[in-house]
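> run fold ABC transporter
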Amino acid sequence: MTRFEALLKRSYTLFFVALISLTSVGCSSVPDKTAQPPAEISDPLESINRPLWVFTWEYADKYVTRPVTDAYVAIMPMFLREGLLNMAENLNEPSSMINNLLQGKFKHAGSDAGRFVLNSTIGLLGFYDPASDFDLEQNQEEFGEVLGTYGVSDGPYLMIPFLGPSSVREEVGDFIDHSYFPIGALAFWPGIFRRAIIGLETRADFGEREQVIDNSVDSYQFVKTSYYQNMLYRVYDGNPPVVVNDEEEEELDDYLDMLDEIDEGGE
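> ok
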């Protein structure tokens, strides 16, 4: 068996393992978008996460990530930056297709497949994006989002040195995503180069949010809350449910009762 066949077999195996794991939790073939996410963020490792956040933001980003990103943006021509990022993201299309299929998003899955074929051929391995000219929109979905859609909780919050906020669910999802072909077929250094390109462009796009973090009362708490809000936004396709705890719900009920009394008094 060749290395390509072994990787392809591994991808098929991972796909069916993922499918079985989703159906084994008692979910239907289409995920329940009405399920309520937890109101509280699980952070049992805060005593470890906080120092890691300080290291990541105050030292790693300040003295490594930000200077390298600034140099990359200053040196690299824009067309080359866009082309390299397109190539890196094009490799995500097959895993995104599977993740959309697992959520019953067949139209998005078809778009992912079309994008990968067109951009990998006419687009010169993804350097160009002719698929967009055919109205094939990018709908990248991660396996962590699939798990969240099917009701799997985030698990403990994690702060990864140099990389930033994450969760147990997202780390499991990333492992699955990176195991599918063609990303799983990349050798070590090409894989590192691809992640570096995505990381540099993500940091370059960070922009004015740096000042927001620096001006926040508790930057650790701010980043954690923002991360989970973003995860909810992605899992619920831009329409997350409003989550309130019991105390907030009681205050809301009292407020509505007061409005009713005011309306009755005015009649």
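The two ends are 83 Å apart (CA to CA).
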